[in-house]
Each structure stands twice: as structure tokens, then as C-alpha cells.
Amino acid sequence: MTAVDDVLSGRPAASPTLDVDAIIGDPSVRIVVCCGSGGVGKTTTAAALGLRAAEQGRRTVVLTIDPARRLAQSMGLTELSNTPREVAGVDTGNGGALFAMMLDMKRTFDEVVLAHTDPAKAQEIFANPFYQAMSSTFAGTQEYMAMEKLGQLRATDEWDLIVVDTPPSRSALDFLDAPQHLAKFLDGRMLRMLLVPARNGGRSVLRLMTASFSLVGRAFMKVLGTELISDVSTFVSSLDSTFGGFRQRAERTYRVLQHRETAFLLVAAPEPDAIREATYFAERLSADRMPLSGLVLNRVHQVAAAQLSTDRSLGAAESLTAAAESPQTAAALRIHAGLRRRVARERSVAERFALAHPQVPLSAVPAQPADVHDLDGLRAVGAALGDAH
Amino acid sequence: MPRPADNAGPADPSAWPRARLHVVTGKGGTGKTTVAGALALALAADGRRTLIVEVEGRQGLAQLFDTPPLPYAERRVAVAPGGGEVRALAVDAEEALLDYLDMFYRLGTAGRALKRLGAIDFATTIAPGLRDVLLTGKVKEAVTRTEQGRRARGRTYDAVVLDAPPTGRIARFLNVTAETAKLAKVGPIKTQSEGVAAILRSPLTAVHVVTLLEEMPVQETADATAELAELGMSVGSVIVNETRPALLDGAKVTQAELRRGLTTAGLPADRATVAGLAAEVAEYRSRLDLERRLRDELARLDRLMLELPLLPDGIDVSALYSLAETLTKQGVVAA
């Protein structure tokens, strides 16, 4: 790619180029995690990478969280499906295959419970109001369950490559923080305190609170209420063994993310907010010794009439309008000038990231005229990613 | 620059909801924080005072108004046109809980003890829905604060703007009673969440959805509109962000015409330039067709539609004033 191309594509000249094909073609890479803030095309990127890997011969599964309806349809996911399904219409000539699944966090949670308790106890847990609320609305459940599902998929050893689309969290960091959050909760003093009354049959909750914890206990009761505390207490004790196992697995998955078999791909749009989030995430990954393979700069605009500068175009449009000459050309020049300014703005945003992280390889995917919602569209995105270098 | 919603749905400025609390949501990447900031400025015009609140711990408001990170306190971040001011608050769930405990139970020291036990962590991150009750509870307090109130200390507002979570989570975030009803059948959490829910469903509150003329944001706007209606809340207005003037409406552009025009203007008219320009025009036109179709879809939601232009040089504080002015011209005014 020449310097002029770099200017026009919006990719900062200083950054190394991200070679996506080298990543998905490397048999030692088993997991690709796509992360980034909301609205940057993370899901589409994950699906496009999965399709490209499958058509290059790898047995691939894409774990998506909440794909847009039409994108889900293009992958044969017309209903919520918590087990991988083969995607039709994929070229399997190279020996690969594409499977896709959508995370159902409640069902995943239920499965974890079922796998670790006897059926009677499981029913008891399912009936607990705290469990019902937690398994469907728990802040962070989606992150835990995405991690859990990733661990399950990896454990079956059925796939050459697992491509993960991370949940649309408040911040991209929530995905990494979820397992530790859970571990902190499980190891916390509060949990042990909650477990004591339950082990004594549950009746001593009030006595324990008022006697041993006096001020603290009373505050606790006031905020949460006795009923909630006893629900939580029963829940936690009945789920104790399950949680222990879950925590261990979450920690194991977290360690897998630090292995060489995992590649993190940051996805960002060339907008200040998305780039800022990407910067935080890049810093966090390096602090946690997790391998960041590169940044995919999504929906980058490009200029076709490269010779015409912004100023000359606008000046010429003015003089054409003043002379009442070719209004179409004047409009075309204004469109061109607007596009050029946009490209320049996107480029300066990308430059900022490149300056902060000069070692992170970068690849720019051109903006598509319409949203992607079929396999051909995904193929085009995959080709743009693969051909960037 | 500002362009009225000429080919859009209802744009009667008198339809702007006379609410005190303006909740701003939208798909990620649509610029909802920017729109919330412009809205807070517009509502503060002519000597009024508004509070803009963020609840997601992103310090997006500090970046927007170009100020240092906001503490858990109401700080002035901008002066409005014609006098008036915008204050900003970054609500932190943990601080809100301690604040709440202190306010109602006078639990200064016990609060800190709870923190050591991990109970605050539990309450704000683990317990389902509780975090949202605390965050919206703080917003409710700011909305209903009165001059005579014990804690008001002269900090009442003409309007409160909430930079809310994105469309995908907005219904869950605002539906605090249902969430907590699953957990707390009685007690202070229930009382608190019912109080918040009543405000959110009253004419005191308007929920606005920010969108772009792109497929996914428009789809999510329609989904959020339906979800909110089901919960007894409704969309006050749909704010279409980053709109561009429609150049070349309907006119066909041939390469021959471009070549002639470029030559007349004294610009290079070689084959590559002409073809490049023609390609850019073709892409622009297909974009325009898509935008027209999406605008029609939005119009079918039958909500007040406001428009904000794409500002070619990006968003800074002065751009925010220009967007606020555009909103004012479309009828946005504090109740």
C-alpha cells in the first residue's frame, strides 16, 4: 500500500498492518475474541471473520451475543439457539465448516446448575426468586455466561477456531472483569456471613444480624429487607458447590485468554468515543498480559477522486454556482468536499490511536453503502479485512 | 445548516413534551451523550437551570463539556445562552447507596462498615436491579427536589436531562419496579423503586430516542418505542442526529456533464477524476435513497421528530451551542 493509499484509506501510515488471514490461518490460534464498544460493528466483524476462516478450511464456530435480526437470519439463527448450528450456504470446499450460536444466558445458567446438582436440588434452585432474577437480569450475568459458554466450547475440542463476539456492555472491560467480580463476591466476607444462618436452618438470620453485627447488621436489614436476605442466603447455600465449580472454570477460561492460542481483536469505528474506549481496552489487555492482535477500524470512508482537494472543490463549486454553470458538477464537488473532510476527520482520530499504541497492527474496513445482512455481505467484509495488508 | 424535518413526520414544535425529566437514549454510536448535552443547554436558555446526569461511569459529560472528570457532586459545566446554567452530575451507584443510607437512616459509619464487608459491592453490582434503582433514585431526587426541602440548599432545577443507557438496555433500566418486585416484596427498596416508577410514568418524564439515518439505529428506535409503550412509558421525541442536506435531489449526473463542469471551473477533468467523482456521487445517491426510506420508517412511529445536522468538524463545546440553538428553533424549551 502506498502512502497516498494510506491517506485515502484512513489508515495511519505509521502503524503496522493487521494481517487477519495470518491469524485465522494459524492452527495454533484457537480463539479469536472481538471486543469494542457498542455500535462499532463488532458482531458483523465476528461473523465475517468466522465465515472467512470456515471458507479457508477451518472448522469454526461463532458465538454471538445479540445479532441484529437480519444478520441472525443470514446465519440461520432465526430463533434463539444455545447450541451451535451449521450455517448453510458456506463454501466448505477447503474442508472447513461454519457453525453459529446465540448466547441464551438464562439457559446457560440453568445448564450449569443442572450439571452440578441433582435434579431435585436444581428444581429448588430454579424456584428461588433470587435465582430467577439473577439468571435473567443480573448485571454481568451475560458476561459470566459468555465466558462460561466459551469455556464449554473450548472444552469439547470440536472446533479449530472459536470466534467470540463480546456482550454489548457498559464498557468493553466488563467482559474481562466478570469472572473476578464473581470470585470476589464468592470469596467475600458477606457471603460467608450469609451462609452461616442458612446452614443453621435459616431461622437464625435475624438473631445473627441483630446480635453479632448490631449496627452493621441492622443497616443491612434495612436496605435489603429480611425476606431478600433469606432468599439470597438459601440460594447461595444451595448453589455453593455449583458456584465453586463455576468459579474455577471461569478462572480457567480467563487463563486460556492469556494463552498464545487466543487472539484479541479490537473493533472500533473511526469516532472519538469508540477510539477512546479502544485505547482503554488496549491498555487493559496489556496490563492483564492478554494478547492484542490488532485493531479493526470499521466503516472507514474513502475518497475516489483523490486529485481534487477540499478547498479547490469548494472554490470551484462556488464559482460554478455564481456563474450559473453546471449545478450538477457544483453539487458533486460539494459532496466530494464533504467526503474529504469526513475522511480527514476519521484519519486524525485513527492517528491518535496509532500514536498511543504504535505497536498495535491496524486494518481499515471501508464503510459499506448498506448494513450487512447476508453471507455475501459478510464475505465482502471478510475480504476487506483479509486484503488490507 | 439547521434543516427542518421537511419530508418527515409530525414536527409541530408545540408537541415538545412539557416534562421536567428528559431521558435521552439511543443505540450506541448515535451520539446520545452529545444530544443530551445540547438538550441540557437548550433547556437552560433564558436564565433557567438544568442538571445533566450520567449513570454509566464513563465520564462522557466531562469530555463533552471539556471539564476535568466529574465527582459525585453537581458541578457547573456550561453557561446557557441568555443566562442560565447547566450543571452536571456523574452518579455512582456505590456513592448513591451510601448517600441514600445517610439520608434516610443516618448511617455514616455503618455505611463504611458495610463497604468493608463487601455489602456495598453486593448491593451495587450483584443484586439484580438494585443498581438501577439506586441510579434512577438519585435522578428522581434531583427532579423532585424543592427549594424548601431539607437537602435542597438552593439547588433546584427547571429541567433534568438523563444521559441514559442505550436503547438495548433502556426498558430494563427504566422498569425499576418490575425488577425489584422479583426480589423485594416489602421494605425500603420496594418503596424507593415504586416512587421512581411513578415519576417515570408521569407527564413529568419524557423519553427521547436518538437515532441516525442508518438501519440498525432506526430498527432499535422502533423496538425501544414498542418496549417502552408496553411498560406504560412513551417516546417524547425521536431525535435524528447527523443529518446532511440533500444535495442533487433527483438530478441525474452524467460523466460528460461532470467533465464539462470541471473544465469550466478550471479543475482537472482527466478520466480518473471524472470517474472518481461519479462514483462518489453514485454512492451518495444510494445513501440518500436509504436515508429517505429510513426517515419514512421513523415517521411511521408517529412521534415528534427533531433533527440535528452533521457538523463536519466534529463536536466541541462551541458545536454543542450550535446544536442547542438548532433544538431551540425546533421548539425545545423548558416547561
Automatic annotation (TrEMBL), chain A:
Residues 30-300 form the ArsA/GET3 Anion-transporting ATPase-like domain. InterPro entries: ArsA/GET3_ATPase-like (IPR025723), ATPase_ArsA/GET3 (IPR016300), P-loop_NTPase (IPR027417). Pfam families: ArsA_ATPase. One of its GO terms (molecular function) is ATP binding. Gene3D superfamilies: P-loop containing nucleotide triphosphate hydrolases. This is Anion transporter. It comes from Actinocatenispora thailandica.
TrEMBL record, chain B:
Pfam families: ArsA_ATPase. It comes from the Bacteria. GO terms for molecular function: ATP binding; ATP hydrolysis activity. Gene3D superfamilies: P-loop containing nucleotide triphosphate hydrolases. Residues 22-183 form the ArsA/GET3 Anion-transporting ATPase-like domain. PANTHER family: ARSENICAL PUMP-DRIVING ATPASE ARSENITE-TRANSLOCATING ATPASE (PTHR10803), ATPASE RV3679-RELATED (PTHR10803:SF31). This is ATPase. It comes from Actinocatenispora thailandica. The lineage of its organism: Bacteria, Bacillati, Actinomycetota, Actinomycetes, Micromonosporales.
